[in-house]
Write a structure and sequence with these properties.
- By secondary structure, the chain is α+β, with helices and mostly antiparallel strands.
- The protein has 2 domains: 88 residues, Phosphorylase Kinase, domain 1; 121 residues, D-amino Acid Aminotransferase, Chain A, domain 1 (2-Layer Sandwich), CATH 3.30.470.
- Helix content is 27%, strand content 33%.
- It is built from 6 helices and 13 strands.
- Strands 8, 9, 10, 11, 12 and 13 form a 6-stranded antiparallel beta sheet that branches. The chain has a 5-stranded antiparallel beta sheet with strand order 1-2-3-7-6. The chain has a two-stranded antiparallel ribbon with strand order 4-5.
- Helix 1 packs parallel to helix 6.
- It is globular and about 50 Å long.
- The protein starts with 5 loop residues before the first strand and ends in a 17-residue tail after the last helix.
Length: 252
């Protein structure tokens, strides 16, 4: 069978042309990177875990009526998605102080925020994905004011869904980032969640112990990244047990 045409390769995924117009195939790699790819490694099984977890979360968004690019999972590492024009912004939602917010404002990690904070970063690895204001976004025409309003609304809806989902299995959603793309249907366009939602793009802490279950395990050399991601998958019943996949297990 002929190899698909590669469209793009990033740090964690490869995009190929899809079998039908308006579709792509998204392949999840085992590569792990941090600090704008200054730190790199290959974590066996990471891609398969992220593929399965992202499928689970995207299907949940679909059930809630939050538009996203996911169509179906094809195999252990690939999923079929709608093709979109990615807006060159990372949309970050923060519920608890961590990462760059602590460095920027001198806050103690773990400080609860008074309300979810939505940030935008310009997608450019060579610049370190810098934080940008709405004024920058409008001035450089990366998105319109209506786009910004819609992106914030989508991000907060995703936050509500993901926070509740994680809380139910004993995980605190500290922060996360999503990408949003424009899907065109003739003259009509709509904004939809794209890329992925996985431990690669979220900060996840165990609600009781504070144990990190996300890419900070790799960033800070805290143990096995594969074990951390596997623990998240187990809590949602996504790891097969005797060839049977169980449902999420609530944690009291």
């Amino acid at each position: 069978m002929a190899r698909r045409t590669k469209i793009y390769e990033g740090k964690a995924k490869i995009l190929y042309e899809g079998p039908e117009p308006g579709t792509i195939v998204q392949y999840f790699k085992d590569d792990a990177t941090a600090f704008n790819a200054q730190k790199k490694d290959t974590i066996e099984g990471k891609g398969a875990l992220n593929n399965r977890l992202s499928e689970y979360f995207m299907l949940g968004l679909t059930q809630l009526g939050i538009p996203n690019h996911f169509i179906k999972r094809l195999n252990m590492r690939e999923q079929l998605c709608h093709k979109v024009e990615i807006i060159p912004l990372e949309v970050i939602v923060r519920n608890v102080a961590a990462g760059s917010l602590c460095k920027m404002l001198g806050m103690e990690e773990g400080t609860p925020l008074p309300r979810p904070i939505v940030e935008f970063c310009y997608k450019d690895d060579s610049l370190g994905d810098p934080l940008v204001s709405e004024e920058h976004i409008l001035a450089f025409n990366w998105a319109s004011q209506q786009d910004l309003d819609d992106m914030i609304a989508i991000a907060l809806r995703v936050n509500d869904y993901m926070s509740g989902l994680m809380y139910g299995v004993g995980i605190k959603l500290v922060d996360f980032k999503i990408e949003i793309g424009r899907q065109y249907e003739g003259d009509y366009q709509r904004l939809i969640v794209a890329d992925e939602i996985s431990p690669d793009s979220c900060r996840l802490w165990d609600s009781k112990t504070g144990e990190k279950l996300d890419k900070d395990v790799f960033r800070r050399d805290l143990g096995s990244l594969a074990d951390a991601y596997t623990e998240v998958a187990k809590r949602f019943g996504l790891m097969p047990t005797n060839n049977v996949t169980e449902g999420p297990k609530l944690v009291e």
